[in-house]
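User: Some background: our group keeps a shared notebook of sequences we're curious about, and every so often someone picks one and asks for a predicted structure to add to the entry. Today it's my turn. The entry only has the sequence so far, pasted here. Could you supply the structure so I can complete it?
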Amino acid sequence: MTPDKYIKNYIDGALVPAASGAYLDNYCPATGKVYSQLPDSDEQDVQRAVDAAERAFPEWSKAEPGKRFRILMRIADIIEQNMEEFARAETTDSGKPLAMSMSVDIPRAQANFRFFATAIVQFGSESHHMAGEAVNYTLRQPLGVVGCISPWNLPLYLFTWKIAPALATGNCVVAKPSELTPMTAYLLSKACIEAGLPSGVLNIVHGLGNKAGQAIVEHPVVKAISFTGGTATGKKIVATAGPMFKKLSLELGGKNPNIIFADCNFDAMIVDTLRSSFSNNGQICLCGSRIYVERPLYEKFRDELVKRTQFLKVGDPFSAVTDLGALVSLQHLEKVESYLSLAEVEGGSILCGGTRVEMKGEYETGYYLRPAVIEGLPLECRTNQEEIFGPVVTITPFDTEEEAIALANGTVYGLSATLWTQDISRANRVAEQLQAGIVWVNCWMVRDLRTPFGGVKNSGIGREGGNEALRFFTEPKNVCMKYG
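Assistant: Of course. Here's the predicted structure to add to the notebook entry:
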């Protein structure tokens, strides 16, 4: 299973070009050069996909969970059997280190199919007994045709995180991957064909968000939208889908705090803080971009973080010694650089990084940036309020628990937070007060797929993961049977 120069849509079980015949350039971030083409799809392609999904829905929705289980597990097997091909495609598309694609992205993608394939054969309904009078039971039925739209930072990982539960619950899907990272979604199309997924059950339409994505969101037959991406785009989706009364699950931006108390296990903390700051070049919605450190520990922490950040190897994403590869696009690189300039205007000091890496040979036009640590910025400045989504963190001391909580909660976002302390009472007390959908205590990115995932405030609405995802993609119906 290998990538092709011309990516195709996957509609009604077949690989087809866009109806218009138009293509978009697909860039390799490591080299800054075009390496493939993807369909520039529009409402015509979305209509074909919706029509195919509607035709497939009656049979797929009535299929026994065991049948869906077997097909989804077969898709997972094919991804696993082609792990290296998928991982190399992911790295070529996104610029992330191959080691990360091999150890995180592709294993998680196949795990998503396995998890929800298994979950659906155990998914139960509720019943309520009215003594001497009646029994109520709840039917959970698939919605119909649903839309899944995923971002570029964890391309196949997040694409399958949406598609797998939608398919497992008996829905048919029209999905759009990011136009910046389309290749592994294309390979998934091939895997679905090989696995024998019935035609029309999953349709993958490539293209731009304001054309293909918008057409999915506004289509009257599409009953629900599951979207991961920026908060601004989320607002547009709400504006379109809200008046149409569609179900919405929106996983949006984050500006996540990392609170470090002086009694923490310093060695464990500094390792995970480096990870949470710069994994995937900070291009993960769960990265901790605002670091707050109790004052007695601040100088030691600052010096050690700066030292370790400077040791990170930025370069060829296919090299085994690379820690950080390329940012996803030139436009995104320039956005991150604009925030570094802004930070200095706002009075911050860049302690390390923030400059482009000069590469040689085929990589000299790639999008490489040294990770940056900034101190001296107030909470209310834009650098501390707006999502940068790059290898940039700010560090700030605090004196009291109450101050730390106020700083952590002081943005419009509320996706995740990380807390470091050996005091179990403090850990529970602070975790309860943090305005975040996820709180990690003495760890980061420890994920159990059974748990609810999502944020509060401007970080989104709804929850993904476990039974939350199965509930989102089904409609509950109460059936009341009165005794005769």
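Suggested note for the entry: The domain at 256-448 is CATH 3.40.309.10 (Aldehyde Dehydrogenase; Chain A, domain 2). The two ends are 60 Å apart (CA to CA).
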